[in-house]
Amino acid sequence: MRRQTTLATPQTVPAKTWRLVDATDVSLGRLSVDIATVLMGKHRPEYTPHVDCGDFVIVINASKVGMTGRKAEQQMRQTYSRYPGGLKEESYASLRERRPDQLIEDAVKRMLPKNRLGRHMLTKLKVYGGTEHPHQAQQPVPMVV
Amino acid sequence: MPRVRKGAARTQARKRILRRARGHYGSGHKSKYKAEFALIRAGVYQFRDRRRLKRNVRRLWITRITAACRMRNARYSQFINGLKMAGILLNRKMLSELAITDPKVFDQICEMAVKASKAQPAKA
User: Fold this and answer.
1) What is the domain-level CATH number for residue B64?
2) pTM of the complete model
3) Looking at beta carbons, which residues of chain B come within 8 Å of A45?
4) Complex ipTM tops 0.90
5) Region class of B87: left (phi > 0), else alpha (psi between -120 and 50), else beta
6) Per residue in B1-38, pLDDT tens?
């Protein structure tokens, strides 16, 4: 009998679970790596690149996420409107205060595949600045980072 | 010599080509000229990717084994090193399949590998 590599299909993917992460004092990059791994499904042996087999991730306390060195003040989030002089810059420190969800989503997004599947994976990430989240019904399991 | 017209033969030849170009983008599946060139390219990719497939699938096995090891608090490098030390000859394909279909067996293999990896003397 010829044995073939098992590939998960949308039907055979194991049931998706929800993970809960507390971002307090975890460095942004290290946090994002672990989140991206779970979103992609690379944490389970059935991982199949062309199928979404990752879990959902809820991040709380995003406004307390850590950054080493002087990155909070020096690192800038840049957006360009395509008009001359349309470059806007905001430091990570001020972004963390104003839109902590944006800060983490950006970091995770760049670690996911740059395609339709990657964009879909990002929708499974829910980030909240405070300790509250509206996903109690999904019974999230705490995740160690 | 009588003059021969291609007629049906030409239609057949075009159909043969277009049949192989089904599903190509744009006019690639309509125009014989475009389809002919596209098929040559397709063949080149096919040849190349039959070879790449072997590497890509091996990478997938390694990713899966890594995931299975991490679930058991081991690292991939540690695991593979341990297998060598313990004299386990299973290949990566079978290891990744075991991790999916028979996690309990993989538990044991992982335990043996980690033990063997830790048992070796530290490098000077």
Assistant:
1) 1.10.1900.20
2) 0.84
3) 64-65, 67-68, 71, 96, 99-100, 103, 106
4) no
5) left
6) 888 888 899 999 999 999 999 999 999 899 999 999 99
